[in-house]
Write a structure and sequence with these properties.
Strand content: 15-25%
Number of helices: 10
CATH architecture: 4-Layer Sandwich
Keywords: Autocatalytic cleavage, Hydrolase, Protease
CATH topology: Glutamine Phosphoribosylpyrophosphate, subunit 1, domain 1
Structural class: alpha+beta
Order of helices and strands: HHEHHEEHEHHEEEEEEHHHEEEE
Site (Cleavage): 211-212
Strand order of the largest sheet: 4-3-2-8-7-1-13-14
Distance between the termini: 57 Å
Active site: 212
Number of strands: 14
CATH class: Alpha Beta
Helix content: 25-40%
Radius of gyration: 22 Å
Low-confidence stretches: 9-34, 198-208
Shape: globular
CATH superfamily: (Glycosyl)asparaginase
Organism: Kordia periserrulae
GO biological process, one term: proteolysis
Bound molecules: aspartic acid
C-alpha cells in the first residue's frame, strides 16, 4: 500500500471516530438503558426463611401473591403509568394479603394493637411522605403518599396521621380488620417466649423472620420511586417505630442514583441509614448499584450486627435484591415483563 493511501486511511479512521454521529451500537444501548427501560422489584420481608421449614402449599401461596403484585406493577409501568403509581398499587396488593406483615397481615404490638408504618419517595423531586403507628388505615402506603402530596410535612404519626388520612378520603377500617389468628398466636408465643427473640417469631415458618413489604420502580419517563409498608415487629412496645417510615433508612429514591426499600431489624437500618447510604455510595464514590448494595448489606450492616436486606433499582433499570439472611421474599420484573421470583438465598 502506498504511503499516501495509508495517510488517507488513517485520517478517515480518525474522522469517523471523532464525529458526533452515534454508532448504531451506542444508540441502541442508550435507548435501552435510559429511555425505554422500565422495571420493578418487590419484597415481602427477609429473615430465616428455610426450605426445610416451608410446606409446598405455603411456598406456592407466597409465590402466587408475589407474582400477582409484580404483574400489577408491570402493567402500570408498561401502560405508561408513573413509578409512584406502580409502587403504591403494587404495595396495595401485598398490604391486602394476610401473608405479609403489612396492612391486613400486620403483626401485633405488645398492647394487642396493630401499629402500622409506611413511607414513599419520588426520585425526581426528592419529595417524600410517611406515616407511623397508624391503627385504622387499610392501606398505610396511600396515607404516606397523601402526606407527600397534600401536606407540608414528611412524617405524621398515630392519631394525627389517622385524622389527616381520613380527611383525605382514605379508607378507614375497624381495628378488628387487622386481626389474623396466626399473628395473634404469634404475639402470645412471643410474650411467653425468649425475651430477646420475642419480636421475630413467625407463625408460618415457625422461625425468626421479618415480613415487611416494599416496591421500587422505574417508569417510561425515567423516574424512579420507592415505597415500604409494615406492621413492624411482633410484641413491640412503647409505640416503637422501625426504619420503614424513616426516609433514608427504610426507603429512599433519587433520580441521580437509585430507589431502595429495606426490610430487616429496623434499629440497625436506622443507625446505618441503609437506603440513603447505598445512594450516597453511588453518588459520591461512583459505585454501581450492585456494588453499593453489597457493601452496605454484606459489610457495613452485617458488621454492626444487623440482618435483613434491600431491593433497589437505578435509572438505567438495573435490578437488585441484596440480603444477608437465609431468605427474602422477592420478585423482579424487567422491561420485557419477565418475572423472576425468589425466596431462598441460592436461587
Ligand atoms: N424493618 C421493619 C421494622 O424494623 C421490620 C421488617 O422489615 O420486617 O419495623
Amino acid at each position: 500500500m502506498k504511503k499516501t493511501t495509508l495517510v488517507f486511511l488513517a485520517i478517515a479512521f480518525l474522522f469517523y471516530n471523532c464525529t458526533d454521529t452515534p454508532k448504531t451500537e451506542k444508540t441502541t444501548t442508550t435507548d435501552k438503558t435510559s429511555k425505554n427501560s422500565i422495571g420493578l422489584v418487590i419484597h415481602g420481608g427477609a429473615g430465616t426463611i428455610l426450605k426445610k421449614n416451608m410446606t409446598p402449599e405455603r411456598e406456592a401461596e407466597y409465590k402466587a401473591m408475589l407474582e400477582k403484585a409484580a404483574k400489577k406493577g408491570y402493567e402500570i409501568l408498561n401502560n405508561g403509568g408513573s413509578s409512584l403509581d406502580a409502587v403504591e398499587q403494587t404495595i396495595h396488593i401485598l398490604e391486602n394479603s394476610p401473608l405479609f406483615n403489612a396492612g391486613k397481615g400486620a403483626v401485633f404490638a405488645n398492647n394487642g394493637k396493630n401499629e402500622l408504618d409506611a413511607s414513599i419517595m419520588e426520585g425526581k423531586t426528592l419529595n417524600a411522605g410517611a406515616v407511623a403507628g397508624v391503627t385504622n388505615l387499610k392501606n398505610p402506603i396511600s396515607a404516606a403518599r397523601k402526606v407527600m402530596e397534600n401536606s407540608d410535612h414528611v412524617l405524621l404519626a398515630r392519631k394525627g396521621a389517622e385524622e389527616f388520612a381520613a380527611a383525605q378520603g382514605l379508607e378507614v377500617v375497624d381495628t378488628s380488620y387487622f386481626y389474623t389468628e396466626a399473628r395473634y398466636n404469634s404475639l402470645q408465643r412471643a410474650k411467653e417466649g425468649d425475651k430477646d427473640k420475642a419480636a421475630y417469631i413467625d407463625p408460618y415458618i415457625k422461625d425468626y423472620k421479618y415480613g415487611t413489604v416494599g416496591c421500587v420502580a422505574l417508569d417510561k419517563d425515567g423516574n424512579i420511586a420507592a415505597g415500604t409498608s409494615t406492621g413492624g415487629m411482633t410484641n413491640k412496645k412503647w409505640n416503637r417505630v422501625g426504619d420503614s417510615p424513616i426516609i433514608g433508612a427504610g426507603t429512599y429514591a433519587n433520580n441521580k442514583t437509585c430507589a431502595v426499600s429495606a426490610t430487616g431489624h429496623g434499629e440497625y437500618f436506622i443507625r446505618a441509614a441503609v437506603a440513603h447510604d447505598i445512594s450516597a455510595m453511588m453518588e459520591y464514590k461512583n459505585m454501581s448499584l450492585q456494588d453499593a448494595a453489597k457493601e452496605v448489606i454484606q459489610n457495613k450492616l452485617k458488621n454492626m450486627g444487623g440482618d435483613g436486606g434491600i431491593i433497589a433499582i437505578d435509572v438505567k433499570g438495573n435490578l437488585v435484591a441484596e440480603f444477608n439472611t437465609p431468605g427474602m421474599y422477592r420478585a423482579m420484573v424487567d422491561e420485557k415483563g419477565t418475572i423472576t421470583i425468589g425466596i431462598y438465598k441460592d436461587e
